[in-house]
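User: Hey, my collaborator sent me this sequence without any context and asked if I could get a structure. I don't really work with proteins. Can you help?
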Amino acid sequence: MSFANRNQAADRLAEALAEYKGQHPLILAIPRGAVPMGQRLARALDGDLDVVLVRKLRAPFNPEFALGSIDESGWTYIADYAESAGGTPAYLEQEKQAQLATIRKRRAQYTPLRPPIDPAGRIVIVVDDGLATGATMISALHALRARKPAKLICAVPVAPPDTLEKIEGYADEVVCLQAPAFFQAVGQFYAAFPQIDDSEVEAILRQAG
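Assistant: No problem. I've predicted the 3D structure and written it out in C-alpha cell form, which is a compact way to encode the shape of the chain:
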C-alpha cells in the first residue's frame, strides 16, 4: 500500500511540485476522484483550480477497461489494442457519442456560472489519482496542448512504467511518485479509495470559483 488516501497522495505531490509555488499554476483535475486532490494542490501551490473534462471509451463487456478516450472538443485517442478488445468502428462511434453527452452534462453541472479557466500562457498541472492505461490523461494533455499553455505537467501518485512512457510525449514534464511493475488497478495503492460523487465535485468547484 502506497498511500493512506487521496489527501496524503495530494500532499506528497504538492511537495514534488513545490518549485511551482509562487508561479500561480493552474491545477486541472480529471473528475471525479482527482478533484479533492486538485483542491489540496491548488491551496498548497497558491494556484487556481478547475477541471479538464475527458472520458474513457469503455470496452464492451468490461466498462472499467479503456479502449481509448475522448475530450470536450470530440477529439479521440484510440488504443492500438481497441479492436482486439471488441472496439469495432460502430461500437466506438456509439461509445464516443455517449461519453460526449456525459462530458456536456458534467460541464453544465460543474461550472454552470462561468466558462472553463483559460490555460493559455499558464503553467498547467493536470492531476489524476493514478493512471492505469493512461487513456484519459492522453486526451486531457492533448486537449490542453492545443490551448497553448506555457508549460504542461502531468502529476499522478502512481502509474505503471509502460503507461508513463506513453504519456511522456504529451507533457513537458511528468511527475509520478511511484511506478510499480506489478499493477492491477489504481485502487490497490490506496488504503482508502472512496468514490467521489458529483455533489462533492460541484461543492469544491463552487468554493474555488
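In plain terms: DSSP finds six helices and eight strands in the chain. You can pass these C-alpha cells on to your collaborator as they are.
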